[in-house]
Structures are given as C-alpha cells and as structure tokens.
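Sequence in, structure out.
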Amino acid sequence: MSEIEVRPLGVDEWEQYRSVRLTALQESPDAFVASHGDEESEPEDFWRARMQRSVRLLAERDGTPLGIASVGVAGEDQPDAAQLFGLWVSPDARGTGVATELVRAGARTAAEAGKRHLLYWVGTDNGRAVAFASGFGFRPTAERRPMRVRSEDDGEEEVAMTLPLLGDRGGVAQF
C-alpha cells in the first residue's frame, strides 16, 4: 500500500475541495454545522472565497481523496493560535492513519504561519475523538460552547483542546 500524502489545496482546486466536502457532509451529517443541502448549490464564488479564508488540506493515496481538514484563524482574541476544523476521513480509510497525517499537516501549517498553539473543538460526548485528540497531545482548555442545536433538550457541548506547537526549548515541535 502506498503512503498517505497530505497537501494544501490552492484556490483553483476549489472543485476538488467542494467534491470531498460534499461527500463528507453527506456521509457524516452530524459532524458538521452545515448540511449537504446548504452547500451543494453554492456557486463557484462561494467556494473560491472559502478556499481563501483558510488552508484546506487534502489527504490522498494514489490520487484518491481520503480525507480533508482545514486550518484557519482561531479568533481575534487568540492571535498566537490557529484552529483545526472540518476534519473528516472517508469511512474506508478510517483507522489507517489518515486523521493523524491530517492533524500533523495542520500543526505544521500553523507552526509555519508563526502560531504557538493549535485549537481543535471536540464534542464532549465523542469519546473516540477526545481520545484521539488527547493521544495526539491536545489538552482541554476551559473553553466550552454548545454543539449545533438538534433539540431543546440537547445539552451536548464541545471543548476546546489545544496543542502547543513549540517545544520546551522554544523550537517547533516535531510532527
């Protein structure tokens, strides 16, 4: 089996990103705020603008898309942090290291942009995602926010987890 390759997509590769994103929204509708129906009819301008707002990472093997993730601004109040979001791996590639490679690429992207931390929001009820993030070195912060509301009784929340991008000696951590 060949290696997993992760690369940033350029603005002109919006159609490839759109295709994988729509597949992700259809396959894992509860994992995203947007829905397939929300985004499938969006025009080219929407997708090009989205490509410019954040770095879109594509994981592939032999030219076949395996997963995506994005790295963008964490917030005006956190200028030293980037945020990893929109992480999705195709069902047939789960458990093969694709998510790990996407997170590593996201951490490198953030570090290369001069960021000191990488944030990743994880649903507190998603034990598998919390364990994955913890195993990678992400640690919970005090920040919480409600998950997308599915019903009035939905008390699910997300926790911000942070990954330091600088080692103890001030150098970039190895990913």
